[in-house]
Specification:
161 residues; mainly alpha
């Protein structure tokens, strides 16, 4: 039963598995820098998803904008959760918010896009940045620089996805 389901959905599962492995390698850990193979594996997952999910036909411009905005939001979200500096994480979150607002505009929801920009980018992200800048008097603590349980976090997020 499971093998038949995997055989029929391998094109959807391949980019998810590659992305999960790349994010697990990119999670911040003490004394370890980002590795180039993990970044390349993440880019391969994005390219694989675009290749498998792109179908010929339809509106070309709308399709290209969708993949550009979706790829930007996914890349920014990965950078947001793997960044060691909370200020950079807040800036990556702003980029995720703007890309998602672009996706809202593609779906003809301008009010939702404007409300999201006003609420998230205008209020929450600015508050995050001010709190982070005012609260960090010295360098970051050890527990802020390493993920507690990166494997379980990645597994749970990709199961939900």
């Amino acid at each position: 039963m499971w093998i038949d389901w995997i055989k029929s959905h391998w094109m959807m599962l391949t980019p998810l598995l590659l992305g999960a492995i790349a994010i697990m390698w990119l999670m911040p850990r003490l004394g370890r820098r980002r590795s180039i193979p993990a970044v390349l594996l993440g880019l391969a997952a994005l390219c694989c998803a675009g290749f498998f999910m792109a179908r010929p036909g339809g509106e070309l411009v709308e399709r290209c904008l969708f993949f550009l905005l979706a790829g930007t939001s996914l890349f920014s979200a990965v950078c947001m959760i793997t960044s060691r500096d909370p200020v950079y994480s807040a800036l990556w979150f702003a980029l995720v918010t703007l890309a998602v607002c672009g996706l809202f505009l593609l779906q003809s929801a301008p009010f939702l896009a404007a409300a999201t920009i006003i609420v998230y980018a205008g209020a929450i992200i600015v508050t995050f940045v001010f709190v982070i800048m005012l609260a960090r008097q010295s360098g970051g603590a050890v527990y802020d620089q390493a993920a507690e349980q990166p494997i379980w976090g990645v597994v749970a997020s990709f199961l939900l996805l």
